[in-house]
C-alpha cells in the first residue's frame, strides 16, 4: 500500500518554485518521474503543485532526486493552516 502525504501544509508552491528554478516544464518533470517507474500523469503533477492532490511519498522521493535537494527543502516556508 502506497502512503500519501496529505497536503494540509502547502508544499506544492515549493515544488513549483524548485521546478521553475531549474527551468523544467511539468512535462519534463513527469517524464523523469516516469523513468523512475513512478505512475504519474501531468494532470496529477499539476494538482500536486496546486496543492489539490496528496503527494505519494515515492513521488516526493523522486522529486528530491530530480531537484537534488533533501526532504527538508520541500517544507521550507510552508503555510500552516490556521488553528481553530
Automatic annotation (TrEMBL):
Family annotation (SUPFAM superfamilies): lambda repressor-like DNA-binding domains
A Pfam match: HTH_19
Limits of the HTH cro/C1-type domain: 15-74
Domain of life the protein comes from: Bacteria
Protein name: Helix-turn-helix domain-containing protein
Lineage: Bacteria, Bacillati, Bacillota, Clostridia, Eubacteriales
Amino acid at each position: 500500500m502506497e502512503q500519501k502525504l496529505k497536503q494540509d501544509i502547502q508544499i506544492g508552491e515549493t515544488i513549483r518554485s524548485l521546478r521553475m528554478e531549474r527551468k523544467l516544464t511539468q512535462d519534463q518533470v513527469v517524464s523523469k518521474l516516469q523513468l523512475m517507474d513512478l505512475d504519474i500523469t501531468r494532470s496529477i503533477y499539476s494538482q500536486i503543485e496546486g496543492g489539490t492532490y496528496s503527494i505519494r511519498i515515492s513521488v516526493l522521493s523522486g522529486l528530491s532526486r530530480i531537484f537534488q535537494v533533501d526532504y527538508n527543502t520541500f517544507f521550507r516556508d510552508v503555510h500552516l493552516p490556521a488553528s481553530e
